[in-house]
Amino acid sequence: MRMTVPELTLAVLALLLTPGPTNSLMLLAGAERGLTGAARLIPTELAGYFLTVLPLALAGTTVLADHQGFRSGLTLAAAVWVAVLAVRLWRMPGPGSAGRSVGARALFVTTALNPKALIFGLVLLPSPDRLAANLALFAGLVVLVAVFWAGIGAALRAGGSGQPRAICVLRRLASVWLAAISVILIAKGVGA
User: Would the pTM count as exceeding 0.85?
Assistant: First the structure.
């Protein structure tokens, strides 16, 4: 069944807005750097998504049909990476440290391995006659949602949560959330 542009827009937005590893990092980047600093990471997020989404949208269905273990392997790789991120965030220096926990490399890898990319690349975006338009729509929505999550983080910062202790608590909360996502991904990868 082919989706109309409004249906596709709503489906992509619903999935992009769902809290996950990439959104958690953008929220944290907004809290640590402010909206302008976090917005500088948006091209990195786009590149991470397109690294996975574009090949899947072009040939993913064929590859997955021929190699049944690929999806499970990718899901387990994502689970391991998210677990590593959770540990790194937990171990970040405490209050008084000026370090940033969200770098371009971590955001790129996290986004490229984001399980949402599988859904975008295999289900929502492929369309022989309008793939380019779907990808352009997707890119615009990624930017919009990244600004949204970074803006929430920046608002927390402006509201007094930008203090070193509050940033440390936010990192710990993001770490626990990412650990939970990792456990869910491991269960899905083993069960697939």
Answer: no
CB environment 36-72: b (16+ within 10 A), e (fewer) = eebbebbebbbebbbebbbebbeebeeebeeeeeebe
pLDDT in tens, 114-170: 888 888 888 788 887 899 999 999 999 999 999 999 999 898 877 665 566 666 777
- Output the CA–CA distances (angstroms, integers) from residue 95 to 92, 99, 161, 169, 170, in the order listed: 10, 10, 12, 9, 11
The mean pLDDT value of the chain amounts to: 82
167: tokens are 């940033």
User: Taking the CB of residue 144, how many other CB atoms lie within 10 A of it?
Assistant: 13
Give the per-residue pLDDT at 75: 72
Q: What is the pLDDT of residue 96?
A: 47
What CA–CA distance (Å, rounded) separates 38 from 36? 5
- Of residues 6, 38, 171, the one with CA closest to residue 101: 171
- Please enumerate in sequence order all residues whose Cβ is within 8 A of that of 102, keeping only pairs 6 or more positions apart, or say none: 25, 26, 28, 29, 32, 33, 38, 41
Tokens for 1?
A: 């069944």
Which of 157, 188, 181 is closest to 76 using CA atoms? 188
